Hints:
Elements: E1 5-6, E2 9-10, E3 13-14, E4 21-27, E5 32-39, H1 42-59, H2 64-80, H3 82-93, H4 97-115, H5 117-120, E6 124-130, E7 133-141, E8 144-148, H6 156-167, E9 171-175, H7 182-193, E10 201-203, H8 208-216, E11 220-226, H9 229-241, E12 245-249, E13 254-258, H10 264-276, E14 286-292, H11 295-309, H12 328-343, E15 347-350, E16 369-372, H13 379-382, E17 389-395, H14 398-406, E18 410-411, E19 413-417, H15 421-430, E20 435-438, E21 454-455, E22 458-459, H16 466-472, E23 474-482
Parallel strand pairs: 1-5, 8-9, 8-11, 9-10, 11-12, 13-14, 13-19, 14-17, 16-17, 19-20
Antiparallel strand pairs: 2-3, 4-5, 6-7, 7-23, 12-22, 15-16, 18-21
Amino acid sequence: MSNHLLPHWIDGKPSSATSDRAGDIFNPATGQKIAEVAYANADQVDTAVESSRLAAAAWSNVPVTRRSQVLFRFRQLLAEHETELAEIISLEHGKTVDDARGEIIRGLEVVEFACGIAQLLKGELSPNVATGVDLTTSREPLGVVAGVTPFNFPAMVGLWMYPVAIACGNAFVLKPSERDPSVANRVAELWAAAGLPEGVFNVVHGDRVAVERLLEHSDVKAVSFVGSTPVARHVYQTGAQHGKRVQALGGAKNHMVVLPDADLELAADGAISAAYGSAGERCMAISVVVAVGDAGDRLIPLLEQRIDALRVGPASDPDSEMGPVITLAQRDRVRHLVDEGVEQGATLVRDGRSLQIEDHEEGFFVGPCLFDHVTPSMSIYREEIFGPVLCLVRCAGFEEAIALVNASAYANGTAIFTHDGGAARRFQREIEVGMVGINVPIPVPLAFHSFGGWKDSIFGSHGIYGTEGIHFYTRQKVTTARWPDPSQRGVDLGFPRGK
C-alpha cells in the first residue's frame, strides 16, 4: 500500500495529471508509511479553479429546489458510508473509529442544515416604498470558493464549509491536510454519486504551494481556513490583499473554570473527556482547568482516578479510548513541552511521556499528562500544545478566574462548572470568549447556529456554518423597481425621496 499515490479530484474524477512532488501518509498507530499523496503545483491548482469556475456558472442557475435534492442524496450517502469514512479517518489520523464516526455525525448536521437552503436563501420584499416602487433584496453566490482544512478533523471541518457553499450555488475547491487526505477523495466520490455536476466540488492536495496559489488566484472569491493562529493570520492577510473574503479560524487555549460549589464528579468527567479525546488534538479541547478556592484539592484526585482508567492504544483495538498523536514530530514536541513544564516548576501529577504500546512501539503515542500548580508564565500554559496535556491553574476567587481567562490571547471556547446560576450568568456576560459552555465542557453549537471564537482564534467577521456561513458564501443584491406609468414621467434633479 505504501506505493499507492492519492491523486487530486478534478471534474468529477481522479486527476490523471502527474505531480513532481508528493508527501508520505503514515499510520500514526504503527509509525509506518501507508501511502503517498500528490502535491499540486500552481498549474494544477489553476486547472481545478478553472474547472470550478465553469461549473459555478451553470450550478448557480440550477433551481434552488434541485440543489436541495442533491444535498438530500449526499446526506443519505454520508449516513450510509459513516463507518467506512470513519475507518479511513482512523487509519490516517489515529483517533478511534468511534471518535471518527462522531465527526461524520457532526458534519451530517451541517449537511442537513444546508438541505433547507430554499428556506434559508429567501430574500425580502418591501412593496410600494415609494409611489409604484418595490424594493427587494436577494442573496447570490460568489462563484468559486475554497477551503483549507486541518488534520485533526479531516472530514468534519470540510463538511462545515462546502455543503453550505455548494447549496448556495457556489463551486468549491478543497485543499485538505496532506497528513490524512484520503477521506476527502472518498467524499468527492459520494458527491458525484449524489448527482453533483462535475467541477462543482474539486479536491487539490498539497502543501503551502497549493494554499498560496488559492489565496492569489483572481477567480477564487472567498477562502475558508481552520488551523494554527500564525497560519490563520497569514491566510487572512494574504487573501484580503488579493480582494477575497476570508474566514480564518486559528488556535485555542480553552479554559474550564470550576467553582467550589460545582458537581466535581461531573466536572472531572468533563475535563477528562474534553482534554484527552482525540489525544487532545481538538481546537475545542480543554487544556486548562481553572480551579477556584479549594476546588483544586478536591478535583485532582478525581482527575487522577479517571486518567488511570483510560485505555490508550491503536484504533484497531476496540477497547482503545485514546489513540496516538498525528506525527512523530508532534509526539516529540508534546514530550518537549512536558519537559519544559517540569523544568519551569509545575507539578507533573501524571506523566505519559514514556508510554509504550505492545506491538506498536513505533507508533506516535503519548499518554495522558496532568499538571498541577501551573502559572501563566509557563510555556505549557502559553502555548497551544495540541496533545494530551491538561494543566490545572489555581485561583483564589471568581474574579481572578475571569480575569485569567480574559487575559488569554486565544478566545475560542470556554466553560464554567457551577450550581450557582448567578455566577454562571455573570460568567456568560463578562467572559471575552466566542463560545461559552455552562456545565458543558465543549460548547460546539449545532449547525443552525454558527461556530467561531474571538481574538486570535479567528480572523475575519464570519463564523463557520449556520447563517454566518450563508452570509459568507453569498452577497446581497438590492433591487429598486418601478414599472412605467405615464403619469409619473418627468425630469427631477432632486435627491430621490420616498414619495
